[in-house]
Amino acid sequence: MEKVFERLMYASRWIMAPIYLGLSLILFALGIKFFQEIFHLLPNIFSIAEVDLVLITLSLIDITLVGGLLIMVMFSGYENFVSQLDVGENSEKLNWLGKMDAGSLKNKVAASIVAISSIHLLKVFMNAENIANDKIMWYLLIHITFVLSAFAMGYLDKITRK
């Protein structure tokens, strides 16, 4: 009975596989949104204000960072919790694939969230005249919380690996 239960529990990790595949659909949706923004920008490129162009650029960078975060979570999560990716020897293989454990994935995700938050905060500062001061304070406080959390997680990971 115990062996059957353990095998069933171990096999249940495959429930995560469609979830990681679902993240690739979100990545596809981000790609559509990215190019939608570019197609809206191009016809107005000569009439758009420089500040607006920078804000759109920051939004595109934001989408790119979230896409990279999705790739990391999909591949590392799949490899850590479901099964190793069987990428052929002749095909391109990401150099970090198979080397990122759950702890380093957590730190990479935290660093990505800080980067995404930084881009968002920069967008807020560039549009500060249209945003209430109390909202700016909250954005800044949330960003500082992300930074401190990422630092704490990295520090804890460093002292526990020794």
Structure commentary:
By secondary structure, the protein is an all-alpha fold. It is 75% helix and 0% strand. It has five helices and no strands. α4 runs antiparallel to α5 (133-161). The mean pLDDT is 86.
Q: What is the strand tally?
A: 0
Uncertain stretches: none
Strand content: under 5%
Biggest sheet architecture: none
Structural class: mainly alpha
Average pLDDT for all residues: 86
Order of helices and strands: HHHHH
The first-to-last residue Cα distance is: 39 Å
Q: In angstroms, what is the radius of gyration?
A: 20 Å
* Number of helical regions: 5
Assign an overall shape. Answer: globular
Helix content: over 70%
Task: Offer a concise description of the structure.
The chain is mainly α and 162 residues long.
Please render the helix and strand layout as text.
Layout: H1 2-11, H2 16-41, H3 50-81, H4 102-126, H5 133-161
Task: Please give a handful of descriptors for the protein shown.
162 residues, mainly alpha, 5 helices, 75% helix, 0% strand
